[in-house]
């Protein structure tokens, strides 16, 4: 074994002795979870007035908050509600996903994402395209990656909607077997997270109102 690989640097030696570092990190994660739990209750209350305007099956699963320690090396929390996940999107095989995912990612951002595939994507394509002026003005991002399970906002994963024309936006919306529309907030706006993300949640739900009843 190469002992140099397991020796600690001076910085690592300082950190491994610092119990306050981990205790403070745990406190921050707990507070982020409380923020998501409050948003969860706000989402549930808001959707009570929209049950007849949303597909019944997506409202059956209860909200879920997932915790992880290693999305690209850093801790995260994700609230999924509403959530309906089919199997992974495969060629020549239609899948069905309808989810609004609210994420806290350590060191980076809070975000809220509308994630659609299968019949839900097909049903929403017209509404998303019609909402282009609003999404452009509200500083939303459109997923452009070939994989649907990346959450970062690097240029190979998301592109600002205000950089598209209406035609190029529609082309990108139709291109993949899945669709992701996302909004992010910097961690410096921690105190405004609940209000801002709740407002964006309501906007994403409003997309459904442009569609004919199923």
Write the SSE topology.
Blueprint lengths: L9 H7 L2 H29 L16 E8 L2 E12 L11 E9 L3 E9 L1 H12 L1 H6 L3 E3 L14 E3 L5 H10 L2 E9 L6 H14 L8
Antiparallel strand pairs: 1-2, 2-3, 3-4, 4-7, 5-6, 5-7
Helix pairs in contact: 2-6, 3-5
Task: Describe, in plain words, how this protein is organized in 3D.
With 214 residues, the protein is of the alpha+beta class. The chain has one domain (11-210): BirA Bifunctional Protein, domain 2 (2-Layer Sandwich), CATH 3.30.930. It has six helices and seven strands. A hairpin with a 2-residue loop joins β1 (64-71) and β2 (74-85). α3 runs antiparallel to α5. The longest helix has 29 residues, at 19-47. The chain is globular, with a radius of gyration of 19 Å. The termini are far apart.
Low-confidence stretches: none
Strand order of the largest sheet: 1-2-3-4-7-5-6
Q: What is the percent of helical residues?
A: 25-40%
Strand content: 15-25%
Largest sheet: 7 strands, antiparallel
Q: What is Rg?
A: 19 Å
Oligomer: single chain
Give the total of domains: 1
**SS content category:** alpha+beta
Arithmetic mean of pLDDT:
90
* Overall spatial form: globular
**What is the helix/strand order?**
HHEEEEHHEEHEH
The CATH architecture name reads 2-Layer Sandwich
Tell me the distance between the termini. Answer: 63 Å
Give the count of helical stretches: 6
| Number of DSSP E strands | 7
CATH fold annotation: BirA Bifunctional Protein, domain 2
Could you name the CATH class? Alpha Beta
